[in-house]
Design goal:
289 residues, alpha/beta, 13 helices, 8 strands, Aldolase_TIM, FBA_II, Fructose-bisphosphate aldolase, Class_II_FBP_aldolase, calvin cycle
Length: 289
């Protein structure tokens, strides 16, 4: 039986990170799972609230559990950016392995108080579930933005991170360290890349000793990502890059054969495009040459 906590602790010992990829449909899930099996590395798939409402919590959990059991492979399911206790409880009861309880938009004291209560309630449902808290501002929306928000004031301070982790008892912390949800047009074209505040990551790790998650990893400089992992990032989220690959793959497939109407034939190119992205990211996160 695979346990996510064990997988993350083993990754930390090896100075690698577990890749987390959001799945909005079975096409992306199929591509992510196939990519992880090619490299034989564990993987986390995430579902935002909108994606869970589109597919269904229990359907998501059944698909991932089915893959894990059928193939005896470490794939895990995370309820990404959950903003209410009600929705977090639904995910826990459905069988999710982890929940991101994100109240980062609230003042720190309110975030601490409500996250602490959520940790207690979710562990009562499933003692093995991992609960992630978030502080700081990394923007919203895994999409293509016209311009980058000013996130300088929302960077996570190491002393606040320690206070948050100690007070809430979260299993994972998602800090704001120069990361940003979504991508800019120049990032999609590969002209510019995000960079991370590596020293801030190192300080937060020293202060908290917590397992750390990097959200908004799409479009980030490879060197910056490897440095971040070495300094203590344990999970890296990729979403927008997959959505772009899905869209480009679908457009290519339809252009190649405009008369095709069989869904699984049309969707093979999007799957291949997504796999290219996922394999490249998993190689980087796991330091595979």
């Amino acid at each position: 039986m695979f346990r996510l906590r064990d997988i993350l602790e083993q990754a930390q010992e090896r100075h690698v990170a577990v890749g987390h990829f959001n799945i909005g449909d079975f096409v992306i899930l199929k591509a992510v799972f196939a990519s992880a099996r090619v490299l034989n590395v564990p993987v986390i798939v995430g579902a935002s609230l909108g994606e869970r409402q589109f597919i269904g919590d229990h359907t998501f959990a059944a698909m991932v559990r089915g893959l894990r059991e059928e193939h005896n492979f470490p794939i895990f399911l995370n309820a990404d950016h959950t903003h209410s206790l009600t929705d977090a409880i639904k995910a826990a009861r459905a069988g999710f392995d982890a929940v991101v309880f994100d109240l980062s938009a609230l003042p720190l004291e309110e975030n601490i108080e409500q996250t602490k209560a959520a940790v207690k309630e979710l562990r009562a449902i499933n003692p093995a579930i991992l609960v992630e808290g978030e502080i700081g501002d990394i923007g919203t929306g895994s999409e293509i933005h016209d311009s980058a928000p000013d996130l300088a004031k929302g960077l996570t301070r190491p002393e606040e991170a320690k206070r948050f982790v100690d007070a809430t008892g979260v299993d994972l912390l998602a800090p704001a360290v120069g990361n940003m949800h979504g991508m800019l047009p120049g990032m999609v074209r590969g002209e510019v890349k995000k960079t991370l505040d590596i020293e801030r990551i190192a300080q937060i790790k020293r202060e908290t000793g917590a397992l750390l998650t990097l959200h908004g990893g799409s479009g980030t400089n490879d060197v910056s990502l490897r440095q971040a992992i070495i300094e203590g990032i344990n999970i890296v989220h990729i979403n927008t890059e997959l959505r772009v690959a899905w869209r480009h793959g679908l457009e290519k497939s339809l252009a190649n054969d405009p008369k095709e109407v069989v869904p699984y034939k049309i969707l093979q190119i999007p799957i291949d495009e997504i796999k290219q992205v996922v394999i490249a990211r998993l190689r980087l996160f796991n330091n595979i040459g």
